[in-house]
Amino acid sequence: MILDMFNLKGKVAVVTGANTGLGQGMCVALAQAGAKVAGVARRSCAETAKLVEANGGEFLEVIADLSSVEPVERILNETVDKFGRADILVNNAGIIIREDAIDYREEDWDKVIMTNQKVVFFLCQAFARQYIKQGEGGKIVNVASMLSYQGGIRVPAYTASKSAILGLTRALANEWAKYNINVNAIAPGYMATNNTQQLRSDEQRSGEILERIPASRWGTPEDMMGAVVFLSSAAAEYVNGFTIAVDGGWLAR
Ligand code: NAP
């Protein structure tokens, strides 16, 4: 039956940036769909653990700083040690550093590209190797952005990294579809999280953004839940290399 295709019972999901915002919401969604969840964050995921467990799920906290590739293997190993396997990787952790392009500092460029792009690739690679070893395929869901499609303002490194995520998602899908590994992405629109705190507190920018969103509101972590479960499930078996916008219609304008 169709709803059974969305059921993630017996699956193990890893979500980076699990302590807050969209990552937290996606942990809850995956747990509600039946998956065991390993949440990766550089600080406590206690709140997420509580939410997952309140939804009948099992949660493993993996403390790791994704400002380098150093913890990549450990994230996979801790997950497999605890849950025996890995089936779903959600590359959600990301940072944004705002500055005029003309003044943008090399160290800020490197920080953003490292976490949003380089670490994402090496997590994909580590998990794909595990999926191939397990022999049953697997899912990778990257988190892109409206700035995978548009230029943005004062966020050149973020735009570069999120545009790269869209391309990387396609590139990896091409190579790994033959192993039944589905690599896709979700491009959130303007969502009310820490990521947009600065924007939302700027009355003028906030007003301009809201005015342009057909749905007339900022998105929420709950808005990501359907897309992440879909892309993590058997229902998306023939979906490869695609980035789904969850944006209240922003890109349709
Ligand atoms: P957020 O609340 O800032 O969440 C970002 C997450 O990434 C946090 O858990 C953060 O941990 C984690 N993170 C950042 N650097 C890390 C590092 N070095 N090591 C480990 N974890 C790290 O914002 P969000 O909106 O939920 O963002 C989630 C994803 O959605 C990001 O990739 C973001 O770019 C993307 N996105 C957001 C929007 C939006 O409008 N909000 C739109 C498009 C795309 P800390 O809490 O410790 O910083």
Notes on the structure:
The chain is α/β, with parallel strands linked by helices and 253 residues long. The protein has a single domain, classed as NAD(P)-binding Rossmann-like Domain (Rossmann fold). Helices cover 42% and strands 15% of the residues. It has eight helices and seven strands, in the order E-H-E-H-E-H-E-H-E-H-E-H-H-H-E. Helix 2 links the parallel strand 2 (36-41) and strand 3 (59-63). The relative contact order is 0.15. The structure holds NADP nicotinamide-adenine-dinucleotide phosphate. NADP nicotinamide-adenine-dinucleotide phosphate binds at residues 17, 19-23, 41-43, 65-67, 92-95, 115, 143, 145, 188, 190-191, 193-196.
Topology:
Layout: E1 12-16, H1 21-32, E2 36-41, H2 46-54, E3 59-63, H3 72-83, E4 88-91, H4 106-134, E5 138-143, H5 156-176, E6 181-188, H6 197-201, H7 203-212, H8 225-231, E7 243-246
Parallel strand pairs: 1-2, 1-4, 2-3, 4-5, 5-6, 6-7
Helix pairs in contact: 1-2, 1-8, 4-5
This protein binds NADP nicotinamide-adenine-dinucleotide phosphate (NAP).
NADP nicotinamide-adenine-dinucleotide phosphate binds next to helix 1.
**Which small molecules are bound?**
NADP nicotinamide-adenine-dinucleotide phosphate
Query: How far is the first residue's CA from the last residue's CA?
Result: 36 Å
Order of helices and strands: EHEHEHEHEHEHHHE
What is the count of β-strands?
7
Low-confidence stretches: none
Share of residues in helices: 40-55%
User: How many H/I helices?
Assistant: 8
Q: How is the CATH topology named? A: Rossmann fold
Outline type: globular
- CATH H level: which superfamily? NAD(P)-binding Rossmann-like Domain
Number of domains: 1
Q: What strand order characterises the main sheet? A: 3-2-1-4-5-6-7
CATH class category label: Alpha Beta
Q: Please, what is the average pLDDT?
A: 98
Biggest sheet architecture:
7 strands, parallel
